[in-house]
Specification:
Layout lengths: L1 H9 L5 H13 L4 H10 L5 H11 L20 H25 L4 E4 L10 E5 L2 E10 L6 H5 L6 E5 H10 L4 E6 L3 H9 L5 H12 L5 H15 L1 H5 L8 E4 H10 L21 E5 H4 L1 E2 H11 L1 H8 L13
Parallel strand pairs: 3-5
Antiparallel strand pairs: 1-2, 2-3, 4-7, 5-6, 6-8
């Protein structure tokens, strides 16, 4: 039964679809309509009136008939597909953090991914010092990079300018940790998705087809649980990634010094191959540091050394027009 499959895989999710599936299972197992309506209402996604309306005909209907269909389901527009590379990359970076802990026992970290914090994935901790990190997968090559921003496509990673500015305001020490892997999506499709059980495959299709209240909760729970469950096998097929590090402050400094690195600001580029988002484009080789260098600095001198590097200042003459 389809609702039983969803209830097994997403039973703890707050998504309205998972809650309706659980309600159908309860009804078919003998629960009363009023008790089931109350439970569905208390899940927080529906009014009591709407819960009773659904439950009244839920026992004998397909639970999917009560769900809202996605307006876009293609792989390029499906957030489920986009979440897997992010989850894999974050899982890879977790291994790096564990290595850091082993090398410097005074360092700990806090996982921020499920706290609603949109800027920070992990926060490194040492005494009263905190160093926030945002982990990113650079999985799509910017083929027009040479023409539009003057960088080789294999040496170019994007950072949304508005996010970097927001970070400087709210998390001024933020580091971006990039994993540049243009084959990661194909690796996921070739291996990870093929490891799904029948139940997991069914839920994947449900999440790719339907939306509704708190759908992101279901997406996150499904994607991260699948990555963790299959990580042992999958990680053996993925080379140990060489993360590249750059601070939000440095990204904005590059934008200020090289406005042409941000098509739409320093260069008219819309409709010529640049994305609609204002990204500042970074040279991987020249403007980022490898994670191993950052790790060594933390192990030898602590988090404060990296924070000082992020906040380094220099004096220079700049134009300051009166008119």
């Amino acid at each position: 039964m389809s609702s039983e499959r969803v209830a097994r895989i997403l039973g703890d999710s707050r998504w309205v679809g998972a809650q309706i599936a659980k309600a159908q299972v309860a009804l078919r197992n003998g629960a009363s309509k009023e008790d089931t309506s109350r439970t569905l209402y208390e899940s927080g996604s529906l009014s009591l009136k709407r819960s009773r309306e659904i439950v009244d005909s839920l026992r004998d209907a397909e639970f999917e008939s009560f769900l809202e269909k996605r307006t876009h389901t293609g792989s390029a527009e499906n957030p489920i597909s986009k979440l897997f590379p992010a989850a894999v990359t974050e899982r890879q970076f977790l291994d790096k953090l564990d290595q850091l802990q082993e090398a410097r026992h005074s360092v700990d970290y806090r996982d921020e991914r499920f706290t609603g914090h949109t800027l920070v994935d992990f926060t490194l901790l040492e005494n009263n010092t905190e160093l926030p990190v945002n982990v990113k997968n650079a999985g799509t090559r910017f083929e027009n990079a040479a023409r539009l921003v003057g960088l080789d496509p294999d040496d170019c990673i994007p950072i949304p300018a508005y996010k970097a500015y927001d970070a400087i305001d709210k998390e001024p020490n933020l580091l971006y940790a990039f994993c540049v892997d243009y084959r990661l999506i194909s690796k996921i499709e070739d291996f990870l998705l093929k490891r799904f059980s029948d139940d997991e495959t069914f839920v994947w299709k449900i999440l790719s087809t339907y939306a509704g209240s708190l759908i992101r909760d279901a997406e996150d729970r499904f994607v991260y649980s699948m990555v963790n469950r299959h990580w042992g096998d999958f990680s053996r097929l993925v080379p140990d990634p060489a993360f590249r590090i750059i601070s939000a402050r440095k990204a904005i400094r590059i934008l200020q010094n090289h406005p042409k690195r941000t098509p739409g600001l320093g260069l008219r580029a819309w409709g010529t191959g640049a994305s609609a988002e204002n990204n500042v484009h970074i040279s991987v080789a020249d403007e980022t540091k490898i994670w191993d260098e950052i790790l060594t600095r933390i192990v030898e001198k602590g988090l404060t050394d990296v924070i000082s590097a992020v906040n380094r200042k220099k004096t220079e003459l700049v134009f300051d027009p009166e008119v």
